[in-house]
Amino acid sequence: MSRTVIRGGLVVTAADEIHADVLIEDGRVAALAASGTPAAEAFTAERTIDARGKYVIPGGVDGHTHMEMPFGGTYAADTFETGTRAAAWGGTTTIVDFAIQSVGGALREGLDAWHEKAEGNCAIDYGFHMIVSDVNEDTLKEMDLLVEEGVTSFKQFMAYPGVFYSDDGQILRAMQRAADNGGLIMMHAENGIAIDVLVEQALARGETDPRYHGEVRKALLEAEATHRAIRLAQVAGAPLYVVHVSAREAVAELARARDEGLNVFGETCPQYLFLSTDDLAEPDFEGAKYVCSTPLRPRDHQRALWQGLRTNDLQVVSTDHCPFCFTGQKELGRGDFSKIPNGLPGVENRMDLLHQAVVDGHISRRRWIEIACATPARMFGLYPKKGTIAPGADADVVIYDPHAEQVISAQTHHMNVDYSAYEGRRVTGRVETVLSRGEPVITEREFTGRAGHGVYTPRSACQYLD
């Protein structure tokens, strides 16, 4: 039996803060006891980690990543090996990535392809959502089978006509199926049909720079699509999870639905909380680094997002990590912003940026753990195996130094991308040691993990539903 004891840290979960020692046995949390008490003193182990002056927190759960994702004639720059290693460096110990159904193909084919990419390559544990690009009778039957085997969430797109787009009828059919089989529909809520018109008109006017990506993908078209998705879900009697919410008007739609008692949930991402159209407007095509969808908004939208996180109208912060190198990938859109691959790197930065939000007074410590660990674990059927520190939970544990200062930079990050969206940003707080199922993946700022340690983790249904 392998045992580890973590001594003297402040254990922070979504529910509690307590100075406690943590006993880990065979990859799981075996016991907690208040530091200095006879119960804690009785803990014995081969390995002792001194966490005095540090936080002991659950490993982060990032419910929205895209490793090796094909997009616009290229691929996301992080593989499952590089991306999960970078996630571990940032204190994240579980990702839920998106397998993709090709139009005309089966869900199973897409899921098998993503299993093949990930298996044996991940440094941390992982699960899958399924992107449904082609709703038909076969697809709907397959949804039932996937739910049974632990793929319990399905993403649809109101954006990207001709690629991932589903019309309202297809969305309604998938939602009706999810209402029956216990699945959760995740929605990219932007009116893609209208956006394509605005893109065409902007390019015809010679408006080709990256900043126009943000101007054509209007906040009102995010809000309209969010409203429509909510009402379709209401008609279907299905729960709804809206991904990467960026606009205050969309937050207002979610708040209204939740006030009506609907099972509607919202996610935002660090880029919307910390970046803005100012970044998208950087000269000399530098703004291309910040092209993602939904797009960055003017800075005054950030207040509504932070408020939504405090009032629980937004429940989760994920990254939508989908990195493309500036050189050779983002550059595909020089002279035509619509050809810039959409996506930002961030899987390594989320926990630190959200700790900075604690330092800045936007959220509390426990809310940090709630939106980054516990709620995503519950939302996607992983709790209490993931997302908390409690007897029986997987020993996914981070020793976090709340006082260390660092400067975020592409020079020092571990994501396989040639720039940082947060270059030069000074933050307080840093991951020191990371355990995944009791095994050290990061040990005092050194990578001690390995590809293949991470295992596929089937999920139960969303744990917020009646």
Characterization of this structure:
The protein is an alpha/beta fold and 466 residues long. 31% of the residues lie in helices and 23% in strands. The protein has helices spanning 38-41, 80-89, 107-118, 137-148, 168-181, 192-204, 211-216, 219-236, 248-259, 270-274, 277-280, 302-311, 350-359, 365-379, and strands spanning 3-12, 17-25, 28-34, 47-50, 55-58, 60-65, 70-71, 74-75, 92-100, 125-131, 153-157, 184-188, 240-242, 264-268, 316-317, 397-407, 426-436, 439-442. The strands form three sheets. Strands 1, 2, 3, 4, 5, 16, 17 and 18 form an eight-stranded mixed β-sheet that branches. Strands 6-9-10-11-12-13-14-15 form an eight-stranded parallel β-sheet. It has a two-stranded antiparallel sheet with strand order 7-8. Strand 2 (17-25) and strand 3 (28-34) form a beta hairpin. Helix 4 runs parallel beside helix 5, helix 5 (168-181) packs across helix 8 (219-236) and helix 8 runs parallel beside helix 9. The longest helix is centred in the middle third of the chain and has 18 residues, at 219-236.
Strand content: 15-25%
- Separation of termini? 39 Å
Structural class: alpha/beta
Average pLDDT across residues? Answer: 98
